Structures are given as structure tokens and as C-alpha cells.
Amino acid sequence: MASDAVIRELTAAVQRSPEAVELRLHLVDLLIQQGSVTEALTHCSAALAQDASNAAALNLLQRCTAALATGSAPEAPAVRPNAEFNWSAAEEEVSDIIGPAFVDGAAETVDGEGAADFDVVRRSDVTLADVAGMEAVKQRLEVSLLGPIRNPELMRAYKVNARGGLLMYGPPGCGKTYLARAVAGELGANFYAVGIADVLQHWLGDSERALARIFDTARRNAPCVLFFDEVDALGQRRAALSNSSGLRVVVNALLAELDTATSSNDGVYVLAATNMPWDVDPALRRPGRFDRMIFVGLPDTEARAAIVRMNLRDRPVERIDPASVAKRTDGFSGADIAHVCDTATQLAMAASLRAGEVRPVRMSDVDAALLQIRPSAGPWFDTARNVVEFANGDGTYDELANYLRRKKMR
Ligand SMILES: Nc1ncnc2c1ncn2[C@@H]1O[C@H](COP(=O)(O)OP(=O)(O)O)[C@@H](O)[C@H]1O
Ligand SMILES: [Mg+2]
């Protein structure tokens, strides 16, 4: 009999994908076996409401009513309705017939010296080659960041210094953080991710010392990149909502460190990312600080196909056509496409569970997933249009404006 955990996960999966009749019927089957007949009945009628002639559903309905009539089935404890779909529990259930769906290649955080101060990305398996498409962005990172770091002598010979940092901005889920991980992969030990949230949470009283230590470590390991993700967390608007004077101190400490680091030409490069550049403290964007902006837009057709391939690479798949998925996902972010792939996998896995044998992810699963998932960047572009229209007097957002015009979004 299926464990409570599996039933919980399936229930959560059904809640997240209410259209997935097969998945729901599998849950009904397990619920009847477990004796939760009324619950089974509820799901059974939901399935029949979607597909009144579904033979399996009708069969299950019969089993429900029979069980209710004999009163033989004891009621089991209620399921927890809001549990997240737990892949590991479900995978365990089918471990003998299906390989692991995920291999975690994420960057690791080093324990030990210096680790308490900020996240040190020791190893990132992602390199720029893993970032699909985005040629223009990659080239700018190569020229402004990677090239100079790989050739410090050249930098000295040309008397070029590391003054000024790069700020990546764009809609959520389009690869800014992922690009930073790729830069980390390219640079190995010379990449430091600074957790702004950590600095804010743990060091509010002593942020100068915390930041000084971070920059110190960076200088000792130069040439290197310091990466600040979601820098809008330091912005004025957020400040208004929280302890703004404390935040001010952090921002000032950061500004002071940035100014010294970049003016002393000691090979500390700074990189930052945000979904909301308009919320970033303007002081952070002045010359010598994060003064160059790079727009990271939605993935193009080619990138979308590659993202599909990448996301399904380690899963059992059959006759998936990435180009066709790419064609139908214009406007989707990388994260949206990853979500489509996850959902398709989930549907195939539910079918595998039902059948008791591996059933690879097929285009029909992707089609079903595409019916459920809408692109998520709409609201971001609404804001972006307004910014370009009313707040681009100084040309800060020209790259974004050109993008919107090219895409006929303005
Ligand atoms: N160009 C891309 N190539 C491959 N994967 C991508 C790309 N863009 C986005 N993704 C996927 O989308 C996920 C979310 O991207 P992320 O970097 O977190 O977005 P952002 O930081 O811009 O909000 C990534 O983990 C990655 O799986
Ligand atoms: Mg991010």
C-alpha cells in the first residue's frame, strides 16, 4: 500500500495540476486502498466533471460506492492539503524503475575560514557554455570582466583599471543569477557571492566591519569578482518599509568600500544583478560603482530550445522536439520553460506510477504542461514600459527601450 507521504505528495500535485485527470485517478485508487473513501469520492467526481465518460473514473466510482455501502473501509487521517510536491519521496517509490530526475550541480558553499562572513562559491559546474543563447550579454561579460581577469598583465600594460562595476538587469527568471554562476564557473576560486540578505540580517549593527572583511578577502585573492545579487534590497523604497537608518549605514559602508576597491585598482571587479534597477539606490549607480548596465532579456527561440534540452537532459525522454517547444513559448522566461519541463516530467511520472513501469516524458506531456503555464514576465514589462516612457530622461534605460521597440512591445 502507498505510504501517507506518497498520498500527500500526490494530493499536492493534483492541487497544482487540477487538469491532470490521470494523476487524480491514481490518487483516487490509492485513497480507496487506504480506506479514505469519501476523499476518494470527491476526487473521483472532480475527474468525472472534467471527463464524464472516463472508463477508469467510472470504475473507480463504482469501487467507492461499493466500499461506502459495505462500510468496510475505515477512514484514514485527513491529508495535508498544502504540502509541496516532494520529488524525493515520489522518486523513492519508483526508484527501481526510474533513474534520478535531478542531479544537483549547484555551487557549493565552503565551510570554514571566512565562510561565516559571506558565501564563497567554491565550485560551480555551470560555465558560460551552459548558458543558452544570450550572445551579446556573454560577450560583454567576456570583454569587461573575464578577459581582464584572465590577463592581468595586459591590464597593467594598458594602464586599464577595474574602475566601475557591471549591473545586470532584466525580467525575473531570465538567467541573471545563472549567468553569475557561470562567471563563477569560469573563474573558480576568484569569485565571491556576497549575500546582501546575510549582511542585512546578521550584521546590521556592524555592517562596516562585515563589508570591510569581505572586501579584504577579495583583495587578498585578486584578481577576483565580487557578486551582489538582488541589489535592489538595498534600495530606498525597501528602506522605507524597514529599518531605514540601519540600511543607510550598510549602503554607506558599501559605497565606501566600492570607492576604495575600484579606485585603488587592486583587481577587485564588482558585478551585481537586479530585477528592479529602478529600485536600486541611485548612489550605487554613480560613476566608479555599478555604473555600467547590461540588459538581460527574454530568451530567444534558439535559447528556449536549448533551455528545453538542458532541463530534460537528465530525464527519461522520448521524441521531444525542442524547436517546436521553443516556437510555442515566445514570451516565456527561462524559469517559465524550466517550469514547463518540470510539469511535463511530473505528468509522465504520475503515469509511470500508475502503470508501474517507466513511461518517458513525451511531447503529449509537454503539450499538457503548456496548457497550464503562462509566461510570467508580463507585469515586469508593464513596469519597464512605464520607466522607459517617463523615467528615462538621462538615457539610463536606452538598451531596454531599444529592446522593447525591437520586440514591438512599445
Ligand atoms: N539562458 C539560459 N540558459 C539556460 N538556462 C536558463 C537561461 N535563462 C534562464 N535559465 C533557467 O532559468 C532559471 C532561473 O534563472 P535565474 O538566473 O534565477 O533568473 P534571474 O536571476 O534573472 O531571475 C535558471 O536556474 C536556469 O535554469
Ligand atoms: Mg536572480
UniProtKB/TrEMBL annotation:
The keyword ATP-binding applies. InterPro entries: AAA+_ATPase, AAA_ATPase_domain, AAA_lid_3, ATPase_AAA_core, ATPase_AAA_CS, P-loop_NTPase, TPR-like_helical_dom_sf. One of its GO terms (molecular function) is ATP binding. The keyword Amino-acid biosynthesis does not apply. Keywords: ATP-binding, Coiled coil, Nucleotide-binding. Residues 162-300 form the AAA+ ATPase domain. Belongs to the AAA ATPase family. This is AAA family ATPase.
